[in-house]
Automatic annotation (TrEMBL):
<dbReference type="InterPro" id="IPR005467">
    <property type="entry name" value="His_kinase_dom"/>
</dbReference>
<keyword id="KW-0472">Membrane</keyword>
<dbReference type="InterPro" id="IPR050428">
    <property type="entry name" value="TCS_sensor_his_kinase"/>
</dbReference>
<keyword id="KW-0808">Transferase</keyword>
<dbReference type="InterPro" id="IPR003594">
    <property type="entry name" value="HATPase_dom"/>
</dbReference>
<feature type="transmembrane region" description="Helical">
    <location>
        <begin position="12"/>
        <end position="32"/>
    </location>
</feature>
<dbReference type="GO" id="GO:0005886">
    <property type="term" value="C:plasma membrane"/>
</dbReference>
<dbReference type="InterPro" id="IPR003660">
    <property type="entry name" value="HAMP_dom"/>
</dbReference>
<keyword id="KW-0902">Two-component regulatory system</keyword>
<dbReference type="Pfam" id="PF02518">
    <property type="entry name" value="HATPase_c"/>
</dbReference>
<protein>
    <recommendedName>
        <fullName>histidine kinase</fullName>
        <ecNumber>2.7.13.3</ecNumber>
    </recommendedName>
</protein>
<dbReference type="GO" id="GO:0000155">
    <property type="term" value="F:phosphorelay sensor kinase activity"/>
</dbReference>
<dbReference type="Pfam" id="PF00672">
    <property type="entry name" value="HAMP"/>
</dbReference>
<feature type="domain" description="HAMP">
    <location>
        <begin position="187"/>
        <end position="239"/>
    </location>
</feature>
<keyword id="KW-1133">Transmembrane helix</keyword>
<feature type="domain" description="Histidine kinase">
    <location>
        <begin position="247"/>
        <end position="461"/>
    </location>
</feature>
<feature type="transmembrane region" description="Helical">
    <location>
        <begin position="162"/>
        <end position="185"/>
    </location>
</feature>
Amino acid sequence: MITLRASIAARLVLGYGVLGTASIVLVSAVFYHGTVGVLDRDIDGRIVAQSDRLLTHAAGQAHGALLAEVRRQLDDGIDSDREIFELLAADGRPLAGNLGAWPAAAARIDRGDRGDGATLLSTVVTRDGRPAPARLYLRPLDGGGVLVVGRDLSEQEAVRGVIWRALLAGAGVSLLLTVAGALLFRRLVERRLGAIRRTAAHIEAGDLSSRIPVSGRDEFALLGRDINRMLDRIELLMDGIRHVSNAIAHDLRTPLGRVRSKLDDALRHQATVPGLSCAAHDAIEDIDDLIRLFERLLQIAEAESGMRSRLFERLDLGHIATDIGEMYEASAEDGGVSLTVDAPEHLYVDGDRNLLASAVASLLDNAIKYAGSGHAIHVRAGLFHGGLASIAVHDNGPGIPQAERAKVTQRFYRGDDSRHLPGNGLGLAIVSATALAHGGELLLEDGAPGLVARILLPLAPSS
């Protein structure tokens, strides 16, 4: 059982939750600064401008002119519920204004001295017998006294409260959606990973046919397809191993029994030097046949394992076909078979020369052996449809029945018509394994008459 601390899904949920919370805080801060901050700066600009207009209007006149202007502003009925004016004498005595009380000791100065002694501050004032938050601008006057211009912030505080509540509500909803989305993401990840783990458990229990259910085209689907292809390959190899084991147990019993029988018979009935020598010679030949059998099995295993892929080089498939054709000319002539080769140059593939040459040789050897005297064999290299390189061996002999073509590439399989001929049923299995090791395939087609055994290989990329 995976703990939450060890679960990568849980860590992703936590990471996305932290990231979502940080994003919400950042967005809220920007929004708050862009709304409330703008309102605060707008209020400061208004009261400073209003104070400048009052002083400009009363410039060069006595305090009486300024006092009259303050009273006019209070009586004009424009924005009177929010405007604040107060004119203080040099001794602090109020001369005119609409402040009931101003607790200066409780004032919090937000901006210091502006250079002319003026100060902007936020405080709580008393207006119409009730306390109210206010923003004030204190402007010292020449000859003593202070002009106070301000604004009641009750409406702004209400707006600020609405914005805070909206931000908190939005942040709460966003956080819930983030957590819900993260939990949903975790559930989806665990479900997809759970399918992979269940398939692995079935395979561990011995069910090699189990596969990961795949849907969609996301990363998990691609991973599932890759794993399923790997499992297909593993199942194929395991089936091949079981088939080889059964075939070896069956096919080796006869030659080993024959060797034992010959040696036993020689010891019992021919206990002479010539008789024992002849029996030993026959036993050595039979053992050599078994050694060659095991060598061919190892050749198949080496091709299927991909061990030789690191030895791949750029090869001209036409040259390989020509060389093998020339090597088999004498054997074909001795068997009464006509052999022709049509192999153009510059047909390049990437591969192992020895493996490909051995595969072509196996096809030619089979064609000469099964076609029989009086028949013809044609070896042709060239391009095949689909942009593949092809090397084909076509004989006009008896061919292979359609029902058996899928079986003859299995190890040790031999058709009824070929059991009287020498061989062990590994030739086409080696050719098929070699083609697969090079990213290609072996095709067996009806030659009408005869058989066309075609090795298809991907062309080498142009350099």
